[in-house]
Amino acid sequence: MAKRSSLYIRIVEGKNLPAKDITGSSDPYCIVKVDNEPIIRTATVWKTLCPFWGEEYQVHLPPTFHAVAFYVMDEDALSRDDVIGKVCLTRDTIASHPKGFSGWAHLTEVDPDEEVQGEIHLRLEVWPGARACRLRCSVLEARDLAPKDRNGTSDPFVRVRYKGRTRETSEGAMEALCVEAWDWDLVSRNDFLGKVVIDVQRLRVVQQEEGWFRLQPDQSKSRRHDEGNLGSLQLEVRLRDETVLPSSYYQPLVHLLCHEVKLGMQGPGQLIPLIEETTSTECRQDVATNLLKLFLGQGLAKDFLDLLFQLELSRTSETNTLFRSNSLASKSMESFLKVAGMQYLHGVLGPIINKVFEEKKYVELDPSKVEVKDVGCSGLHRPQTEAEVLEQSAQTLRAHLGALLSALSRSVRACPAVVRATFRQLFRRVRERFPGAQHENVPFIAVTSFLCLRFFSPAIMSPKLFHLRERHADARTSRTLLLLAKAVQNVGNMDTPASRAKEAWMEPLQPTVRQGVAQLKDFITKLVDIEEKDELDLQRTLSLQAPPVKEGPLFIHRTKGKGPLMSSSFKKLYFSLTTEALSFAKTPSSKCVNELNQWLSALRKVSINNTGLLGSYHPGVFRGDKWSCCHQKEKTGQGCDKTRSRVTLQEWNDPLDHDLEAQLIYRHLLGVEAMLWERHRELSGGAEAGTVPTSPGKVPEDSLARLLRVLQDLREAHSSSPAGSPPSEPNCLLELQT
Questions:
Q1: How many other C-beta atoms are found inside a 10 Å radius of the C-beta of residue 373?
Q2: Which one-letter DSSP state was computed for residue 228?
Q3: Residue 177, CB half-sphere, CA atoms under 13 Å: how many?
């Protein structure tokens, strides 16, 4: 049994930020820290005081985390980035909102005395004396302290305060003992690193305690009334705590759902349709993702999606509404393509997206939006006319669309076997449901409704959200990507008159679109032409290759010489991290750019099952005869900084966690249990709620009754497991006050 905590974070936008640049504007971005550890950096939005980010993240973290802080920064090219302000949400604050925190929060000033981190190891003793009690505080060590010096370290010392004394003392009165950590500076004032305040009255009861205590900020100073002056940040933050039981507890639920999927439309299965019926629109995406991952881990993703295809086709009579709603089938297929097809999408779209970003051309087809002043001059004297802008834009878009369709046509063998097999089932089911020459294009449109409209087009419009680019596009590039995505949608719609009528100014692309329709139909015909044997062979081949978890360029810092004459240089190498190895080369195998926090997150994921993982490490280097970070003389000595192995960013290529997915499905079914009981009463002729058939010899127990029994068993298992709030910090048995 294990506790799992995760945070859904959406950084929406900022407003009324102060100007930090001489131009009267700012270049804001956000950094998110969990307990002072940076985990997220958003894109920079240039030259604005009201930036929009709209970035979403899922963070897995230990249940014992304390707070999440959002720092709004102003990026500067020539100097250190400016801090605009921050919003800090404690764990208790987030947990007090069952549906999550959502809304605007005022930015507050960042006070260095409040930016603390780390822990200190103390041994505390109180014993009675002849006339008064005696108090002893032994300061042993500290870890994970905030770096206050330019070299990324600190020079820490500790000051112990008790009734004005700073050493071992004996006093009759009992009050708080304060242990403060400071960074010593030769020239400037010492920097505050944090403090621990101990209730001596409590210590007197237990007499002796030893452990690691978390350093707290100094909040004794009066705060400036600056709320609102630094602007506001709109956030959505939702905390999810789950107690995951051992796998054996979930096996009945998993077996029951898998049995339903294997039966498909042939048996009396009713659970999958019932889950869809009882799932609200707002949580349908989460449920679809959880079910998809569960069946993917069981090797039944294709069968699960095939069942959903058949269910939706059975209630659809009009071809133009097929798979266009936010049904469980549509949401599950979206999740499936992101989990199983993201690497394939990168291979097809990556080069085209990179070229659009590199060219940065002004592209516009809508005459009402053409701005000749944004284009500049075509020659030495004459500016371009509107007609020339439109023609040049059409040429650019035709080139991009043609390159994309050509790349797609060549990508049949690169498409994962399970994706091809799923599209094969979709193609066959639609053709069986809508036979005849008048519906010739319907099976192709069904495939493109997912491949083009719900996968490729969103990735083209928002490449950062699909990890195709590190930064969001600027306004000019965004317009180009939007027009390219519209063209892809027209091709995906098989160039129907309805799609052409919407935006007549897209007409200059029609020759390429018509040619693209033929290319796309030929591609789909080859894509779905995969037999069971070929599917198994391709899947076996792909399974032998460890997929990359992260890949991209990193700069290796090298220091030459010693003392004041030493110099530094950086060497650019291209790294690839898989679940088996970390390798590098001098030339790139991919143009994907990855930030440091993404690399750290990826390294933690592949190290999660490493039994030899160290609990601490040295963040510095061993130079001369000591470590630069803590000045230890022993090269193989214990590290001075704590290894953070439990804060990770959720990515599309994360390993499947079968038990967690089963727990999340159980949690959802528990929320709709009343509706399940209502349906059970209808099917069983008015049986009372909570009464499940217990005599298997008399009447066969249907799948819904078995599901209700499984939910009861899981509820009992959870109630008998240790419950309550997340565990407190280990060894910290003293009451801490700030």
A1: 6
A2: T
A3: 30
Rounded to whole angstroms, how far apart are CA atoms 8 and 237?
A: 6
Query: Which residue carries 């796998």 as its tokens?
Result: 247
Taking the C-alpha atoms of residue 552 and residue 39, their distance in angstroms, rounded to an integer, is 18
- Among all chains, which residue has been given the structure tokens 């995969």? 530
CA distance linking residue 180 with residue 161, whole number of Å: 8
CB 426 within 8 A of CB 309: yes
Q: 702, 252 in Cβ contact below 8 A?
A: no
How far are the Cα atoms of 324, 441, 515, 522, 661 from residue 490, in angstroms, in the given order? Answer: 15, 14, 12, 16, 37
Given a contact cutoff of 8 angstroms between Cβ atoms, the answer to whether 240 and 59 are in contact is no
Phi and psi of 625, rounded to 5°?
-125, 20
Instruction: Say if residues 404 and 519 touch (Cβ distance below 8 Å).
Output: no
Q: CA 30, CA 48: separation in Å to the nearest integer?
A: 14
State the 10-residue block means of pLDDT for the chain, 738 residues long: 86 94 91 86 88 89 88 88 92 91 93 80 84 83 80 82 58 68 85 88 84 83 62 94 91 93 75 90 90 90 93 87 86 92 93 93 90 57 80 94 96 92 94 91 93 94 86 85 94 78 86 93 94 61 52 59 48 64 56 52 70 78 81 83 69 76 93 91 66 44 87 92 45 29
Residue 574, phi then psi, degrees to nearest 5: -110, 115
H/E element holding 664? Answer: helix 658-671
Token pair for residue 650? Answer: 């959720």
